[in-house]
Amino acid sequence: MEKHIPVEINHVKAQRLVRITWDDGHVGDYPLEHLRGYCPCALCQGHDAALGTKFISVPGVGLQTIAPVGNYAVEFHWQDGHSTGIYSYDYLRSLCPCAACVSEQESE
Ligand SMILES: [Zn+2]
Ligand SMILES: [Zn+2]
């Protein structure tokens, strides 16, 4: 898989999504529930993470801040105080819910 770096990450509050612009010009809109649902932390994923990432539904979840982690990941701080998920750029890119990315993943 190609490596991509986000050049811009915006919390679009009115639409309850995070818009990520990547270095290859790709733009992904990530609904907050989608991002939080795929939180990669051990608390959310348990110890069977090797089986693949589970989706944990947190309806109505709000996003407080987005913090960079080194130069490889970002951390989302949720309004319910949850902030242990570190989303690597690779992981974030793989979560992109747009039709082009989803069909690419299904064909792999
Ligand atoms: Zn989590
Ligand atoms: Zn995409």
Summary, kept brief:
This protein has helices at residues 32-37, 42-45, 89-94, 99-106, and strands at residues 6-12, 17-22, 27-31, 63-69, 73-78, 86-88.
**Total beta strands:** 6
Sheet with the most strands: spatial strand order = 1-2-3
CATH architecture: 2-Layer Sandwich
What is the element string, with H for helices and E for strands? Answer: EEEHHEEEHH
Instruction: Estimate the strand proportion.
Output: 25-35%
Question: How would you explain this protein's 3D organization?
Answer:
It is globular, with a radius of gyration of 13 Å. The chain has helices spanning 32-37, 42-45, 89-94, 99-106; strands at residues 6-12, 17-22, 27-31, 63-69, 73-78, 86-88. The chain has a single domain (6-106), classed as NE0471 N-terminal domain-like (2-Layer Sandwich), CATH 3.30.2020. The strands form two sheets. The chain has a three-stranded antiparallel beta sheet with strand order 1-2-3. The protein has a three-stranded antiparallel beta sheet with strand order 4-5-6. The relative contact order is 0.20. A hairpin with a 3-residue loop joins strand 4 (63-69) and strand 5. It is built from four helices and six strands; from the N terminus they run βββααβββαα. The mean pLDDT is 92. Helices cover 22% and strands 31% of the residues. By secondary structure, the chain is α+β, with helices and mostly antiparallel strands.
SSE layout and pairing:
Layout: E1 6-12, E2 17-22, E3 27-31, H1 32-37, H2 42-45, E4 63-69, E5 73-78, E6 86-88, H3 89-94, H4 99-106
Antiparallel strand pairs: 1-2, 2-3, 4-5, 5-6
